[in-house]
Write a structure and sequence with these properties.
Elements lengths: L6 E6 L2 E6 L6 E3 L7 E6 L2 E5 L11 E6 L2 E2 L10 E4 L8 E9 L2 E2 L4 E5 L18 E7 L6 E5 L8 E6 L18 E5 L5 E6 L13 E4 L8 E6 L19 E6 L5 E6 L20 E6 L7 E6 L5 E8 L5 E9 L11 E3 L8 E4 L2 E3 L5 E4 L5 E7 L9 E6 L9 E5 L5 E5 L10 E4 L9 E4 L6 E2 L5 E3 L3 E2 L2 E2 L3 E3 L8 E4 L2 E5 L8 E6 L3 E6 L8 E6 L2 E6 L15 H9 L26 E3 L19 H6 L6 H4 L12 H9 L7
Parallel strand pairs: 3-46
Antiparallel strand pairs: 1-2, 4-5, 5-8, 6-7, 6-9, 9-10, 9-11, 12-45, 13-14, 14-15, 15-16, 17-18, 18-19, 19-20, 21-22, 22-23, 23-24, 25-26, 26-27, 27-28, 29-30, 30-31, 31-32, 33-34, 34-35, 35-36, 37-38, 39-40, 40-41, 41-42, 43-44, 44-45
Length: 660
C-alpha cells in the first residue's frame, strides 16, 4: 500500500522547507557533526562551510563567529556557507557555528581554528576558474581499487576505507595467477592510519571477486566493514589463477579496530555451469548492497550472478555481533537481467526499501516485484528523473540487442512500466551512460549514453542536443554537484566540466581540475555539495568546493537513496549518487527525511532504558511550566527556559522509540 503524506510548506526569510507528516517508522541514519570546513582563499578571504542535518528543523538558522565576534547581522537561513573577508591571516582564527532555533541561539555546536599563516587551500591558481580545495592528502604509494566512507569510530566524521591495489582481472577475460593480494586499509578522517586487513590469495585481484561495503549495520553509531573473504591458509587458485573451489565467506569487521566480528558462508557456487558458462566467468560475479527492508534498520544484501542465474540473500547484523539470515531470492533467467551495480530505494512508497538488481526489482520480503524483460546492461540510475511524474524513475542503458526492445529507456520505478524508450537494435551494446540536470532550459534531468545517434535526451525522451563531450571525447565519467547552482557538473580524467547548454554541439567547458583518477564522489564534509576523492601523484586526495552558494539543503548523506548509493560505490562499476527527490533547476523543496540518529540518545528517554514510554512522563511533568532556566536546563530543547508543549510534542514524536 502506498502511504500518503500530509505536506506543509513553511517559508521563512526566503528559505523554503517541505515538511512531511510522519507516515512510517523512522530509519536509523548516521549521527554526523557539522562537517565544518574553513579554507584560506588568500588575500584575507576565508571560506566557511558546514552541514545542515536531516534532523534539523527546516527553519533553523546559524550564527557564525570569528574569534568570538559574530559575523552575521541576522541568522543565516538560506545557505550553509560563508565568505569571510578582511581576515588577519597572520594570526590564528577560531570560527564557531551556532544553530538558531525558534529565535534562540543554541550552545556552541562546532569550532575550527585556522592556524596563523595557514597555507592556501589550493596548490596553485587553476587557470580554468574554480580552484578545488585540497581538504586532505594522504601519502599513498600503491594503486587503489575502491574507496568507501563511513564513521568508523563514532565521532561524527567520515573516515576512509581504501581497497588496494587496483584490480587488474575481469573473470570474462584472461586471468593469470596474481602476484599481489587485496588489502583493506582504514584511515581516520584526518588521514591517520587505523588498521589494515589482507584478503590473501583466494580473493582474486578484480572487482567481481572482492565486494566491500561500509555501513553502520547494527545502528550502534559506528560503521562496520564487510568484505567477501576466503581461507588464508590454503591457496585454492588453479593454474589459470582462478578460484573455483574452496570455502567462500563474507566477514563483518569492526570499523574502528579491523577485528573480525562475524563470518558466514557466501552464496554457494554449486555447479559453475549453472551461472551461464563453465569457464568460471559468470559464477564469479559478486556484489553487495544495503537496504532498509523493514524501513527502520539497515540489512546487508549479498549477490551472486548477473547474466543468467542470479541469487541474492538478505542478512541482519545484530548488536551482539551475530549475523541473522532473512531470506534468499533465486532466479534463473536465460537472457540475463543483472547489471554491474545495485540500486536501492523505497520505490513503492511503503516505507521499506526495494532492491533494483538490474532489470529486476526485488521487494522487501525477497519476492520479485517486476521485470522489464530488457535483459542485461552496464549502468542504470534511480531518482526522481522527471519531476512532473509521480514517484521515482529508473534510466536504463542496455547491452544486448535481440534481447532489449529499447537500448535506452525510462521506467516507472514502482511498477517497472515503460515510460519511454529510445533507439533500436542497431545501437548494439550501448555500454555507458549518465543522468543529471545539466540543461536548465529543459525540465527534469537529462539522459545520455555512449551512443552518438541518441545524443542528449530530455527527461521526456526527446533528443535536445549532442551527447556531452570535451576536446572531442565523450564525457560520461561521473556527475557531481560542485559550483553555486543546482545543475550537475561532470568529471572526466581529472577535469571538472560544465555542459554548454546554450550551444548545440554538446560541448563542455572546463571549469577546474581535480587531478588523477576519481575514486569516489559524495557529500563527505561541508555543505550539501560533493567532494571528489582521487589518487594523484602518490597522494590520496579529498577535494572540496570553496564556492559560496545561495542554496541550502540538508546533507545528502541523510537522504536514504543517496546514502546507499554512496555506500554502493565501492562495489561494481563506478557510479555517482542520486537523491530520492528531483534535484535540479526548478525543483520543489525536498521533503525532510524521516530518520533518527543511530547510537545516540533521543529526547524523551529520561530513564535510560532505551525506549520512550510511560516511565519517562513523570520527569517531564515534574518540570511542566516551570519557568526557570537553571531548573529546566537539562530538558529544555528550544532555549526558552520553560518546559511546555514544544518539549511534549518532541517526546510524543519519539513515543515508543529509542536507541536499540
Amino acid at each position: 500500500m502506498k502511504l500518503k503524506s500530509k505536506l506543509t510548506i513553511i517559508v521563512i526569510l526566503g528559505a523554503i522547507c517541505l515538511l512531511a507528516g510522519p507516515t512510517s517508522a523512522k530509519r536509523y541514519m548516521e549521527y554526523l557533526d557539522r562537517g565544518m570546513t574553513v579554507l584560506n582563499l588568500g588575500s584575507g578571504k576565508v571560506y566557511v562551510g558546514w552541514r545542515m542535518f536531516g534532523t534539523d528543523p527546516c527553519d533553523i538558522g546559524f550564527n557564525i563567529y570569528r574569534n568570538s565576534v559574530k559575523l552575521n547581522s541576522s541568522p543565516v537561513m538560506t545557505s550553509t556557507n560563508w565568505l569571510d573577508t578582511g581576515v588577519n591571516l597572520s594570526q590564528a582564527n577560531t570560527y564557531l557555528i551556532r544553530p538558531v532555533i525558534d529565535g534562540q541561539e543554541q550552545p556552541q555546536d562546532t569550532a575550527f581554528t585556522l592556524p596563523a599563516y595557514a597555507p592556501l587551500a589550493y596548490d596553485t591558481p587553476d587557470p580554468y576558474g574554480f580552484n578545488p580545495a585540497k581538504h586532505l592528502a594522504i601519502p599513498f604509494a600503491d594503486s587503489i581499487d575502491k574507496v568507501a566512507v563511513g564513521d568508523l569510530n563514532g565521532d561524527g566524521k567520515y573516515d576512509y576505507i581504501i581497497k588496494h591495489p587496483q584490480g587488474v582481472f575481469d573473470p570474462g577475460k584472461k586471468v593469470t595467477p596474481h602476484t599481489e593480494t587485496f588489502k583493506i586499509a582504514a584511515y581516520n578522517s584526518d588521514g591517520t592510519f587505523m588498521w589494515e586487513v589482507d584478503l590473501w590469495w583466494n580473493i582474486v585481484l578484480g572487482i567481481w571477486w572482492s565486494p566491500v561495503i561500509v555501513y553502520d549495520l547494527n545502528s550502534d553509531g559506528k560503521a562496520e566493514v564487510v568484505a567477501k573473504t576466503a581461507p588464508t591458509d590454503v591457496d585454492y587458485r588453479n593454474e589459470d589463477g582462478r578460484v573455483l573451489t574452496g570455502p567462500e565467506w563474507f566477514t563483518v569487521f569492526d570499523g574502528e579496530t579491523g577485528e573480525e566480528l562475524a563470518t558466514e558462508d557466501w552464496i554457494a557456487r554449486g555447479n559453475i555451469c549453472d551461472w551461464g558458462d563453465c569457464s568460471g566467468n559468470r559464477v564469479n560475479r559478486n556484489m553487495m548492497a544495503v537496504a532498509y527492508l523493514d524501513g527502520v534498520r539497515p540489512s546487508l544484501i549479498i549477490f551472486r550472478g548477473i547474466y543468467e542465474k542470479m541469487v541474492a540473500q538478505a542478512w541482519n547484523f545484530n548488536q551482539d555481533n551475530t549475523l541473522e539470515f532473512l531470506w534468499e531470492w533465486d532466479r534463473a533467467y536465460d537472457a540475463g537481467g543483472g547489471f554491474h551495480s545495485i540500486h536501492v530505494g523505497d520505490i513503492d512508497g511503503d516505507g521499506k526499501d526495494e532492491i533494483l538488481n538490474g532489470s529486476i526489482a526485488i521487494d522487501d520480503d525477497g519476492t520479485t516485484m517486476w521485470d522489464t524483460q530488457e535483459g542485461h546492461g552496464d549502468r542504470f540510475y534511480l531518482s526522481d528523473i522527471d519531476p512532473d511524474l509521480a514517484g521515482l524513475e529508473v534510466f536504463y542503458i542496455q547491452e544486448a540487442p535481440g534481447v532489449y526492445e529499447n537500448p535506452l529507456h525510462l521506467t516507472d520505478a514502482a511498477t517497472g512500466a515503460l515510460i519511454w524508450g529510445y533507439g533500436d537494435d542497431s545501437y548494439g551494446d550501448v555500454g555507458r551512460g549518465l543522468v543529471g540536470d545539466i540543461d536548465p532550459t529543459h525540465r527534469g534531468m537529462e539522459c545520455w549514453s555512449a551512443n552518438t545517434a541518441a545524443g542528449l535526451l530530455s527527461s521526456e525522451g526527446v533528443r535536445i542536443n549532442e551527447r556531452p563531450s570535451y576536446a572531442n571525447t565523450f564525457v560520461c565519467d561521473r556527475s557531481v554537484w560542485w559550483d553555486d547552482d543546482l545543475l550537475r557538473e561532470l568529471t572526466q580524467e581529472g577535469r571538472l566540466l560544465k555542459f554548454n547548454y546554450n550551444l548545440t554541439d554538446g560541448s563542455c567547458q572546463r571549469i577546474g581540475t581535480c587531478g588523477g583518477e576519481v575514486m569516489l564522489t559524495g557529500d563527505v564534509i561541508g555543505d550539501w555539495r560533493e567532494e571528489i576523492i582521487s589518487l594523484h601523484n602518490g597522494e590520496f586526495r579529498v577535494y572540496t568546493p570553496m564556492i559560496v552558494t545561495p542554496h541550502r539543503f540538508y546533507t545528502f548523506m541523510h537522504d536514504p537513496i543517496y546514502r546507499i548509493d554512496v555506500s554502493s560505490s565501492s562495489v561494481g562499476y563506478p557510479q555517482s549518487a542520486y537523491t530520492s527527490f528531483y534535484m535540479g533547476d526548478g525543483m520543489a523543496p525536498p521533503p525532510q527525511p524521516q530518520i533518527k540518529l543511530a547510537g545516540h540518545w533521543i529526547y524523551g528517554d529520561f530513564t535510560g532504558d532505551n525506549i520512550v514510554n510511560n516511565e519517562d512522563l513523570p520527569y517531564l511533568l515534574e518540570l511542566w511550566l516551570v519557568d526557570d532556566c537553571n531548573e529546566t536546563a537539562e530538558l529544555d530543547l528550544n532555549g526558552d527556559c520553560i518546559i511546555n508543549s514544544y518539549e511534549f510534542s518532541v517526546l510524543a514524536e519519539n513515543w515508543l522509540e529509542g536507541t536499540e
